[in-house]
């Protein structure tokens, strides 16, 4: 663990055991104070991530059934079609940038489908989402604020549309949130908008940068590429290992509600603690030879890529299937692919690729 004076001072937990224990102990470690380091607070609270149980629970309960294994599996044909269309355009050009041409579009299109958005709203979301991503990546505070406000507007429009004409709660996240009653009362309007705004961002960036990271890794490892192309049953394990190795979110934060002692050091109440999931996932005490890609890890369930405890990613099933389908389709698009330029990594706080130029190889 470490302490830094940057950004007003924060603690960082890097070991797997510490990160997993703190993420699971929601009574002691709150997310409602500060969920990321450094704190970015342009807009209001965004459930479920910004609330602690029990306040957190109704939002999570409304979203979870819409992201169940059954619901997610039903999205697979749509995902495949979206991937194939995007990749066909790249193949026709002999290659392209996996991030700009494929992975930055696919999650938005899938997500738009899941959220029952109109084509116009999906286009708007794609544009605003991209502006937000670029602003965050270039550390441009003013542009991040503007793009964040625009995303709020998208969320507000979705909520207003569903309020005017609700869809079935079993098929629509916004309608499900609007239908929730706690002690007979609906959820506060601004927190419903905040939830939609939260979901609009968390579900889009991670799949995009991981697909880029997988493409770069495989372009540099043709033997692994062939192995996965020849045996698609290996893809789920490969995706889990990619997620461990290239954990896209470096970490989220918690705040201890009382003084706590970790590894002999006292963390005073109220000080932010970054949970460095990406570091925990390369902890040599848990993962042998942690910097290598291995398909035969005996303990992949220890991976913290989707977090732990009550805030563990509610969209994990959707994110994971998006990665499996994207990888499957990328491998099917051509007999092979190689790097056609220098890839560009993402900046803090994400890990992955922002640009991954590739060239497809033709059949011999
Ligand atoms: C590769 C894909 C993804 C990764 C790696 C990922 C990772 C994570 C992580 C690490 C957390 C825990 C945050 C914390 O501990 O404070 C989280 C929470 C969350 N994720 Fe994901 N995520 C992914 C995709 C998605 C998708 C597709 C959705 C879409 C619905 C989604 C929705 C959420 C939500 C709503 C939360 C907050 C849950 C809560 O507070 O109860 N994520 N995600």
Number of alpha- plus pi-helical segments: 14
Largest beta sheet, briefly? 5 strands, mixed
Q: Which molecules are bound besides the chains?
A: protoporphyrin IX containing FE
Counting DSSP E segments of at least 2 residues, the number of strands comes to: 14
Helicity range: 40-55%
Query: Taking strands numbered 1, 2, ... along the chain, how are they ordered across the largest sheet?
Result: 1-2-10-7-3
User: What is the CATH topology descriptor?
Assistant: Cytochrome p450
- What radius of gyration results from the CA coordinates? 20 Å
CATH class descriptor name: Mainly Alpha
Distance between the termini: 52 Å
Question: CATH homologous superfamily?
Answer: Cytochrome P450
Query: What fraction of residues sit in β-strands?
Result: 5-15%
Under the CATH scheme, which architecture would be assigned? Orthogonal Bundle
Judged by helices, strands and strand pairing, the structural class is alpha+beta
The number of domains: 1
Order of helices and strands: EEHEHHHEHHHHHEEHHHEEEEHHEEEE
């Amino acid at each position: 663990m470490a302490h830094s004076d940057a950004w007003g001072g924060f603690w960082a937990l890097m070991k797997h055991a510490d990160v997993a224990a703190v993420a699971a102990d929601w009574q002691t470690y709150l997310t409602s104070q500060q969920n990321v380091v450094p704190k970015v607070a342009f807009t209001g609270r965004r459930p479920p991530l910004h609330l602690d149980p029990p306040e957190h629970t109704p939002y999570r309960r409304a979203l979870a059934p819409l992201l169940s294994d059954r619901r997610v599996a039903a999205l697979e044909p749509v995902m495949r079609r979206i991937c194939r269309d995007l990749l066909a355009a790249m193949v026709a050009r002999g290659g392209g940038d996996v991030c700009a041409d494929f992975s930055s579009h696919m999650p938005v299109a899938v997500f738009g489908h899941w959220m029952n958005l109109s084509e116009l709203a999906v286009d708007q979301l794609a544009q605003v989402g991209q502006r937000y991503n670029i602003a965050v990546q270039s550390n441009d505070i003013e542009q991040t604020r503007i793009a964040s406000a625009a995303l709020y507007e998208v969320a507000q429009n979705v909520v207003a549309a569903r309020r005017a004409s609700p869809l079935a709660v079993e098929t629509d996240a916004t309608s499900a949130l609007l239908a929730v009653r706690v002690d007979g009362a609906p959820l506060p309007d601004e927190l419903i908008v905040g939830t939609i705004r939260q979901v609009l961002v968390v579900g889009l960036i991670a799949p995009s940068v991981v697909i880029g990271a997988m493409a770069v890794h495989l372009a540099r490892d043709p033997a692994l590429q062939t192995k996965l192309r020849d045996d698609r049953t290996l893809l789920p394990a490969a995706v889990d290992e990619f997620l461990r190795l290239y954990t896209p979110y470096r970490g989220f934060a918690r705040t201890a509600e009382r003084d706590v002692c970790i590894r002999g050091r006292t963390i005073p109440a109220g000080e932010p603690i970054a949970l460095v999931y990406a570091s925990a996932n390369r902890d040599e005490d848990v993962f042998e030879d942690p910097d290598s890609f291995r398909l035969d890890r005996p303990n992949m369930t220890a991976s913290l890529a989707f977090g732990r405890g009550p805030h563990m990613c509610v969209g994990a099933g959707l994110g994971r299937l998006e990665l499996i389908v994207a990888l499957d389709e990328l491998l099917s698009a051509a007999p092979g692919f190689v790097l056609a330029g220098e890839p560009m990594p993402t900046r803090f706080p994400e890990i992955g690729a922002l640009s991954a130029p590739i060239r497809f190889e033709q059949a011999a």
